[in-house]
Amino acid sequence: MIELSPSVRTGSRARAASLRRFVPLTMVAVDACLIYAAFIFAYWLRYTLQLGPHIQQHISFWRYQPLAALLVFVMMVVLVFKDAYRRRMSRDVVAEAVTVFSASTISVAAIVVVTAMLHQWEYSRAVILYVWVLAILLVISGRALHRSVQTLYYRKGRGVSRLLVVGATDVGKMIMQSVMNRPDFGYHLVGFVEHRPSPSVKNFGRFRALGTLGDVSSLAESGAIDEIIIALPASAHEEMWPILSVCERMGVGMKLVPDLFEMSLGRVQIDDIAGIPLLDVQERSLRQMARAAKRATDMVLASTLLILSAPLIGLLGILIRMESDGPAFLRQERVGVNGRSFTCLKLRTMRVDASDVQASLQAMNESDGPLFKLRNDPRCTPLGRRVRRWSLDELPQLWNVVRGDMSLVGPRPPLPHEVAQYDNRQLRRLEVKPGMTGMWQISGRSDLSFDEMVMMDLHYVENWSLGLDVTILLRTLAAVLARHGAY
User: Fold this and answer.
1) Which of 8, 173, 184, 213 fits a disulfide with 151 by CB distance 3.0 to 4.6 angstroms?
2) How many domains is the chain partitioned into structurally?
3) What are phi and psi of 408, to 5 degrees?
4) What is the pLDDT of residues 234-262, one digit of tens each?
C-alpha cells in the first residue's frame, strides 16, 4: 500500500492540477500567435517577395488587419469547438493534424464569404491561399513542438497524474500497457487492483497489483492516486458504485470503460435512433474480402521492400560470413497459421552452436513463460548484437511474407516447443498468420512479459483491421529507430 502524508498528497495533486490548467492556456496563446504569424508570412510572400501573379494594386499591411483578426478569431473558435484544447488520451498526431486542417479551411472559407458579402475583394486571393497553407503548417508544427516539451516535462515527473486501473480484465491490461508506453499521456501508472477477491494478488508483468476492489477507498484516501480508470466486467457493475462515491468525495478523477469493449471492436458500429445510442454488431461477411486485401498489401509492400533491402541483406550476409564460421542465414522451424510449420529466415546473429549452449544459460533467462531472452546474450556475435539492435536480422523474413508463410503485421511466430506449452486461450494466436511486426513489438518489444505479449497478440486477432495494420506499421518505424527493448 502506498502512503503519503496529507501535505505531500495535497501539494502534489495541486501542482499537477495547476499544470493541467496551465497547459491548455499556453496552447491557446501559442496557436493564436502562430495563426497571426501565418498571416504576416503570407503578406510578406505576396508583397515583399512578390510570389504569384503580377501585383496590380499594393494594399498596405494595416488594411489587412481586419482580415487577420477575423482569421485568428474564427480559427480559434473552431479549434475550441473541436475540443482541440481538452486533454484527451485518444488524440494523436494524425487526429490533431486533421483538426487543424479543418479549422484552417473553415476559417479561410469564412474570410471568403465575409469579404464577398462586403464587396471587399481588393484583398489578394494569393494572400488568402498562402494564409490557409501556412496556418496549417505553423499550427501543426507548433503543436508538435508543444507536445515534445510537454512529454519532456512528463518524463521528469512534472504535472503527471497518478493513475490506478480498477479491474485486471484484458481491457484493463491493454489500458495499462498503452499508458506505460505513451508518456505523452501525462500519467504515471501506480498499479491496478483485481476485480475478484483473491487470497494472493499477483503482479502482471511490469504492473503492480495493489490489492482488490476493497482497497480502492484506502488508496484514494491516502492520496496515492489522482485518477481512476474503471475496467470492470459487466458482472461487477454493482461493485462500481462505492468506487464512484469515493472518487467524488476525494476529488479523484474517473474514467469508465463501457461494456462494448468486451466485444470485438471491429464488429461494433455506433448508431442512434431519436438520440438514443445503439450498438450495431456487424456480421463478418467481409472477413474473407479483408483477408484478401491484407494479402495483396503484403505482396506489394513486401516485394518492394525486399528489392530495396536486397543490397543491405547481401552486404550483411558477407560481413557475417567474414566474422565467424557458419551460414549467413538462420533457418528456423516456426509455427504459422492454424499450426502449420514453416521455415523462417533470419540473418544469423549468434554463434553456430547457440542452440546447444542455450540449456546451460537457462538459469539466466530474463523472460517468463516459454520464452528465452537475455539482454546481454553471450551467444551473440559483436556484429550480430548491432544488427539485432536495429532489427536488421529480420529483413529476410520479407521473403516469408512474399511466400505467404507470414504477414507484415501479426503475432510473433512461435517456436514449436513454445506452442507445445500453450493453453487453449494462447493457441488463439495461431488463428492468423504470424507477422514481422505486431502490437507487442511497438509496445515494449523484449521488455514485455510473456503474458503481456500473448494478451496483445490476442487483442490483435480479435480486433484486426487494415487500419490497425497501417497504424502498427507506422509505429514500428518509430520503435525501430528508438531501439527500445531490442536485444
Assistant:
1) 184
2) 3
3) -65, -35
4) 667 677 778 888 888 888 888 887 655 55
